[in-house]
Amino acid sequence: MKNTATPSQRSTKQKTAIITYLRSVKTHPTAEMVYLALKKKMPQLSLGTVYRNLDAYAQEGKSLLFEVKGQQRFDGDVSPHSHFACDACGGVQDLWFALPLPKVKKHLSHGASVRSIDVLIKGQCDTCNVR
Amino acid sequence: MKNTATPSQRSTKQKTAIITYLRSVKTHPTAEMVYLALKKKMPQLSLGTVYRNLDAYAQEGKSLLFEVKGQQRFDGDVSPHSHFACDACGGVQDLWFALPLPKVKKHLSHGASVRSIDVLIKGQCDTCNVR
DNA sequence: TTCAGTGCAAACCGTTTGCACTGGG
DNA sequence: CCCAGTGCAAACGGTTTGCACTGAA
């Protein structure tokens, strides 16, 4: 969240692998999850590189970034939607209801500009509730 | 966010001061902000105590807890509302538009239970936009 | 008197960063 | 050849925690 924005100029194996993985998955992974998944195929991959690229993608608007229980979660799907995070298993799911955007904007102070709208619902998922 | 829930049994100066301060303020302070504010009057107050009590209040539903830029922010007003966080100055403001709750619930998986709904809008506040 | 709560300081851990090296253009 | 990007490991900083002490009941 603090990495300085340096728009990417060169394409590398690592960048391609990271964005490809993020877009192929619906788990809203942490940086470490991405790192561990890719390390199988790219053993020399470093965690710092994963953080740098995930942060860059988020800043460029190529991914969503939100925080759950003190950890950053990334989402390769940037179309507007919300998230449900399970307190028990830590899983995150997409929710596709629409926000009343005109109403929202009406409540913002005049002159404020919006970069993102994050809706995060916390609770227990159905699976964890059964156990 | 990781402190184990131990419902408070004894009332102390510190607990009273912390919840009173949190309810008196509209700044959505971090634990450190609360600590620094109260330390003026209670010089022996410790940061750990502030964290423990703020976390406990959040778990008991006596305050709201959400995360902005890797930091926990606390809100003594637990009536349902949303937040706007300025990327530039770090300030957080309340927003009082209503969510379409029936629609939201319709999209949750059957069997899931909801503990909280956090709406966080990020951008630049009017003041920072002028500068 | 008892033990929940506190103060203190060290530990924790997710994230960031400095630096030498690598490889894309 | 050049310098953006990477790997590595150390540093960072917000939060948590172990332990001895304190004070509410």
Describe the protein in words.
- Two copies of one chain form a homodimer.
- The first copy, chain A, is an alpha+beta fold and 131 residues long.
- Chain A has a single domain, classed as Orthogonal Bundle (Arc Repressor Mutant, subunit A).
- Helices cover 35% and strands 24% of the residues of chain A.
- The first copy, chain A, has five helices and five strands.
- The first copy, chain A, has a three-stranded mixed β-sheet with strand order 4-3-5.
- In chain A, a hairpin with a 5-residue loop joins strand 3 and strand 4.
- In chain A, helix 1 crosses helix 3 and helix 2 packs across helix 3.
- The radius of gyration of chain A is 16 Å and the shape is flat.
- The model of chain A has no long low-confidence stretch (mean pLDDT 94).
- Chain A binds a DNA duplex (25 and 25 nucleotides) through helix 3.
Main beta sheet of chain A: 3 strands, mixed
The number of distinct β-strands of chain A equals 5
- The oligomeric state of the chains shown is homodimer
Supply the number of structural domains of chain A: 1
Summarize model confidence as the mean pLDDT of chain A: 94
CATH hierarchy: architecture of chain A:
Orthogonal Bundle
Give the count of helical stretches of chain A: 5
CATH H-tier superfamily of chain A: Winged helix-like DNA-binding domain superfamily/Winged helix DNA-binding domain
Hey, roughly how much beta strand do the residues of chain A contain? 15-25%
Report, as a whole number of angstroms, the end-to-end distance of chain A. Answer: 35 Å
Decide which structural class fits the backbone of chain A: alpha+beta
Spatial strand order of the main sheet of chain A = 4-3-5
Give me the Rg of chain A, rounded. 16 Å
**Could you give the order of the helices and strands of chain A?**
HHHEEEEHEH
Q: Which pair of protein chains has the largest interface, and what are the residue counts?
A: A-B, 43 and 43 residues
**DSSP helix fraction of chain A:** 25-40%
